[in-house]
Amino acid sequence: MTSLETRIEQAKKQLDDQVREVVNWHFDPEKGTPFWLKYAASLDFDPRDRIRGYDDLKLLGTFEDAWLRKTPVREWIPQGFAGRPVSVFETGGSTGVPKSRINIEDYRTDYELFSSTLSDEAFPKGADWLMVGPSGPRRLRLAIEHLAQHRGGICFMVDLDPRWVNKLIKAGKHTEFTAYRDHVVEQALVRLKTHKTIECLFTTPKLLEAICEKIDLADVGIKGIFCGGTEMNAQFHRFAKEELVPTIEFVPTYGNTLMGLACHKPYQNDGDYTITYYPPLPRAVFELVDPDQPDRRVAYGETGRVRLTTLTKEFFVPRFLERDEGERAEPTEWYPWDGVSNLRLFTRFSESVVVGVY
Amino acid sequence: MLHVPVLRAGKAYRSLNTQTLHDIRSGEPLALVSQANSGLIARDLNQTAAYQQTLAAIPAQKLYDMSNQAADLFLEATLPVDPIDGVMQSREEFIRCQSGTTGLPANMCAANMEKVATALRMTKTIIDGLSQGANQDTLNRAYRREADALGAILPSNSPGVHALWVPTPAMRIPVMLRPGSQEPWTPMRIIQAMIAAGYPPAAFGFYPSDHAGANEILIRCDRALFFGDARTVDAWRGTGRIQIHGPGWSKMILGPDALENGEQHVDVLTQAIAANGGRSCVNTSAVWAPPGSRAIAEALAKKLAGIKATALDDPNAQLAGFTNRRLAHLLDERIEAQLAQGGAEDLTAKYRGGPRLVEIDNTLFLQPTLIWCDHDHPLASAEYLFPFAAFVEVEPDQMAEKLGPTLTLSLISEQESLINAMLDSPHIDRINIGALPTNTVRWDHPHEGNLFELLYKRRAVQFAAS
């Protein structure tokens, strides 16, 4: 069996290979991405010559938040993909104007890779799904349906507009907030009770709590719950496992419009409910960095701000400082690269941002 | 480290999500406080009908006796604070922790313990006063219970406010408490004292949590008390089921007849402004007097300026320290900025002989401040967490008209027309007539609403003649 050290080295090499392939693609004058080609014109070097691996990405500086908010979206479509159907997905908008990301096949690839981490007992092939969560301009709208279809199921949908929920909460309209939550939950209950083929559920933590107040999900045949869409901490993980859905497999997951879909280190029945996410390397990678000196990677176990790099032929985002922080987690047998534990809103943003309300 | 748990139906539960409380002087961590996730709170609050049943059959006199015993236990006993690890807390340790995390001087912590104990001892008197003597053992013959539990979103500023909710279990209604983030100590100690005195543990929920958790309590409890600043509580006004305890804007008013020997009232005015470190909603934030009152204002300023910041463990300490250093600086800067607009003068500045903001023993204090200004100046209606008041000259015949929201008004005057004008005012919650400071509170009187009337509604019950 290959040692963990060897697998870590293999992952690093895979990452460097991916960096070269993606940089060559996005900076290719014929097939490349208009945004990156314009950016390259402002550099005194050709990124294809100088960027030979992940560490060289720092030559491109730091990816700026505003680029995804203000750049015309078509400038992100690689010329090599001209004519392909394009979707656009938006981030939550909790830190201002939403960031937009184009998508062609990435979400399908991400969710197919994620699918391979799900147990067939809890998420049976051919079983139908219910998705209760943020849809609209979000990737989840198509991604969960694709996951269900990829596993041979059909996906029933109940949509939720988290921006409206945020507005209600910010305005202190608690009655309206409760009414809207109940409206969403009622729709979910109707589908769960009507369609006996539904065995898998995607929903958010808050909606899971609200649904579980009304119904025992095991009684209506749910076997697996894929939970995400917003931040989740160890206490919620434990609460879900011990009280909300003790007999159902509960998979907490972190997705991010810019990154793709992370995988969670499986719970080991050891009382350690810490949620540790691992990015889908080599398609994306996290670094945990010192917020005041972003070039310093923090030590394992130390708190840092998440710096994300996304590396696909559809979308290239190098060294983007995310709105999240967490503790740097060590590579594991399942994921021989760095992860992040206790992911949460970056402390310095937390006073002004409403999240986790859905 | 000490770990203050969540209490679910009185049973300790340790959350994986914790908040660390530090001693504001040394920065030393004092305790971890378990934070309840909102789903957990919601799940528990669905059980409140069952919790209420644990109180339903207990005779009123027994409830009063248990509250009376709880008063002694609260004051003197060593009580559980971390039941999971079997950690107990003595009175002395309680005061040390409370002073350390809230900035209240130790002597004020002890004084506030007395307030809470008094309310526990007076439970029967309070309930009789608020219910106008309704027979508590046959209550459902005349009243409908409006809630299975009373929620309470509690503050950190002054532990004396806990006196407001402590009669609730004796009204046979469980309490679901969200403590102030810096002050889990008092509600935990009251609960443990009441359980030790014989109250059923299921009558108590203790849920340190974030705003989402607080909202869950406010949404799910049919009746609740909500302590908070104006911006926070405004969204919950007007529901009829939530009793709001926001800023007090309490006032002392001197009538024309009080001016002649006005300086004799300086001690009462000083107490109204500065008692309990100026942290209570019943502390005066404005003194109104007819034109010609400058001499009284000067005398008051001189007296207030004599109150100096001292270490929190000084037995004669009169000022509380700020837990949030940034807030102390911001308030000081805001006052200076508003003074700079003109039309206002810090009367205390010349007597104080130094800055308003001082640091003693690694603790920031804002020292007493009396502002001389017009009624329309922004500082005339400001309310801050230290002894701060505006002294405003207002024509007596305009006082009632200009009053605005006032939790407690003390009117020093025997002039009938002025007394009647104040009694007729729709803005005042509590009125003292005579030289009583605004912080003179009787718990058997309504305070920002009547707790009994919040929890029980009069109704008709008829039996057919047999």
Automatic annotation (TrEMBL), chain A:
InterPro entries: ANL_N_sf
SUPFAM superfamilies in UniProt: Acetyl-CoA synthetase-like
Name of the protein described by the UniProt record: Uncharacterized protein
Taxonomy of the source species: Bacteria, Pseudomonadati, Acidobacteriota, Holophagae, Acanthopleuribacterales
UniProtKB/TrEMBL annotation, chain B:
Molecular functions per Gene Ontology: oxidoreductase activity, acting on the aldehyde or oxo group of donors, NAD or NADP as acceptor
InterPro entries (UniProt xref): Ald_DH/histidinol_DH, Ald_DH_C, Ald_DH_N, Aldehyde_DH_dom
One family name in Pfam for this protein: Aldedh
Residue intervals of the Aldehyde dehydrogenase domain: 87-395
Record keywords, A-Z: NAD, Oxidoreductase
Family to which the UniProt record says this protein belongs: Belongs to the aldehyde dehydrogenase family.
Name of protein: Aldehyde dehydrogenase
Provenance organism: Acanthopleuribacter pedis
